[in-house]
Amino acid sequence: MAAPTQPTVANLVSEAFKKVGIASPTTAQSDRVTAYHLEELKNDIWTKAGVMGNQRLKSLRSWAVQITTDGKSRYAFPSDFDEEIQVVWLTGTHTGTAQGGAAATITLEDEEDATEAETVGKYILLTGGTGASVPGSVNGFRQIIAYDTDTYIATVDAAWDTNPDATTTYRIIDTFSVLDEDNELEVSPFGNLSFGEGEPSSFTKYHQDGTEYFILDRNPDASTYGIFYSFYKNLMLLDTSGTAYNAILYNWRAPLTLGLAQKIAEDNDDTKRDWYKQEYEKLVSQLLDREIPYGGEHESFIL
Questions:
Q1: Chain segment 221-272, per-residue pLDDT in tens
Q2: What's the angle, vertex CA 224, arms to CA 126 and CA 173, rounded to 5?
Q3: What are the extents of the domains in the chain?
Q4: Separation CA 126–CA 149 (nearest Å)
Q5: How many CA atoms lie less than 13 Å away from 247 in the CB half-sphere?
Q6: pLDDT for 20-50, tens place per residue?
Q7: Of 27, 23, 6, 4, nearest to 15 (Cα)?
Q8: What is the spatial distance between Cα 38 and Cα 23, in angstroms, rounded to a whole number?
């Protein structure tokens, strides 16, 4: 059996009008529901999650990789960032410049002395050149699942977003170190900086001009390390053309549709608006029961 078709905003709006008995809404009606009522519903669900004590919703969980800059300690979280889960320092002893690559492979440099045991199961981070990771994504971060020491070809677990070539630099990541958050420095984030170079052990967050930043307690000594962070997105800041927003439409289609029907019924003085509201509230309650995560988080590990 095929999976349901990915809904769009237009689909949900059309279905909501049909539920209220309006088969052909005017452009003005559709625009109002799309631009105003849908935002109302998102804010309502976001607020209800907060009342339940947790706006960390499963559909809003994401992760990204940031390449370090030599001597730079301050980095920005993605624009739709709400709260971090973990910030992890990525390092490893093997670095180099690739000879080339293909859809799911990379040919390491011809002087690479890493063994099969030092590569298979580890991760590889593209740190510069073609295909390198860009802030807010994981496009240049993959796990190595096979390695030929004769050809230097490493096979990765998923196709690259952009295939590496002879300009691509890399680091084989074999150690993940979870950084501690220093909450005491949120007001004055510079208080614990040593300004020395090396591997950091902690970070602190601060907000400035609409952007959330994190500052490492030590400056990286190279531009080839990685910082991996898992985090929850802010529902109200989601890019409406992104995959996270599509997941929201897919996973939340029932409460969103009933909620829109309620708003349309209110606009048209429909006597069924109370019924739509009651059903919407039930669906939102069930949704948040599924969406609010529970459980612990691991500390760190070495591959």
A1: 999 999 999 999 999 999 998 889 999 999 999 999 999 999 999 999 888 9
A2: 65
A3: 9-57+237-291, 60-234
A4: 19
A5: 14
A6: 999 999 999 999 999 999 999 999 999 999 8
A7: 23
A8: 19
| Contact criterion met (CB below 8 Å) for 259 and 285 | no
Contacts 24+ apart (CB under 8 A), 6-14: 6/246, 6/249, 6/250, 7/249, 7/250, 7/253, 8/249, 9/34, 9/38, 9/240, 9/249, 10/34, 12/38, 12/249, 12/253, 12/256, 12/257, 12/260, 13/38, 13/260
Strand order in the sheet with 175-178: 61-67, 226-233, 81-91, 175-178, 301-302
pLDDT for the residue 302: 42
The residues, any chain, with a CB within 8 Å of residue 103's CB and separated by 6 or more, are 159, 160, 163
The two three-digit tokens of residue 6, written as one number: 């990915």
Residue-wise pLDDT for 84-101, tens only, equals 999 999 999 999 999 999
